Amino acid sequence: MKAQRALAALLISGLLLLAAAAASLWRARELERATAPAAAGNLQVAASFYPLYFFASRVGGDKADVFDVTPEGTEPHDYELTPLDVARIEGSRLLILNGAVEPWGRKVAGLLTPKRTRVLVAAKGLMTGRGGNDSFVDPHVWLSPRLAEKIVGRIERAYAGLDPADAAYFAANARALTRKLATLDLEYRRGLARCAQKDIVTSHAAFGYLAKDYGLTQIPIGGLSPDAQPSPRQLAEVADFARKHHVRVIFFERLISPKLSDTIAREIGAKTMVLDPIEGLTSADAAAGKDYFTQMRQNLANLRGALQCR
User: Fold this and answer.
1) Thinking of the domain 194-306, which architecture would CATH place it in?
2) In what order do the strands lie in the sheet with 199-202?
3) Do domains 39-188 and 194-306 have the same CATH topology?
């Protein structure tokens, strides 16, 4: 019996060593692939999370290979980089950051060699908030089509600076994307012009720029970060406001728990509905053909229904 146990232990130990060796070989190959030269001379670009990835991909077209650092279906505010992420960023010619969403952004940017990898802080100067600390600055500029246009222009200029030969191509793509954003802005202005209600209760303060652009008032349950937990007093104040102002819908987000929104909705007899900050899409979303524009238009439809717009 002892001999059998010893043999079984040896077999298990051997299998574990083989698995570790295989994993080590896989990581080495992935790191080699991540830092390999650009295929067909394409511009290699790392974008920190979905909206920047979407804009960068549309501007880059088939002249840029864009890597989304934040995995599909993952909330970017607290994502931690893997060694493979770092290797792929270091192998890129351009890293595009929002400037306040990424907890790792400043540290990684400081480690990069400027001559090899340029860093573009796409929302710099566009964000507002209380002071310069990232914790008190609203990073959600991509939810304003007007501010998104500015981000697209910055990406186009960064591409042109790194690849002057294809500057006209990038400029044409940026113009096409800007026209689509202008159309989206017009849809929002018309769609939210005549509404019975102007107050939106959201799970966290992600919609300040959108609300300002279209004459709405945002009442967030939490703070600027989706991880911020409101106190019982804050919850009671939001519920009291919603009750007094006859709010019929409490909005929640897809990538975080709807528990707080559900709690207030039950308290005041309202229903819940999604208002997507579009910080990331799932693989199922991508397979279904969803993107930034489909989600923004779904948000508009949900806002119109909640606010009783004509």
Assistant:
1) 3-Layer(aba) Sandwich (3.40)
2) 217-220, 199-202, 249-252, 271-274
3) yes
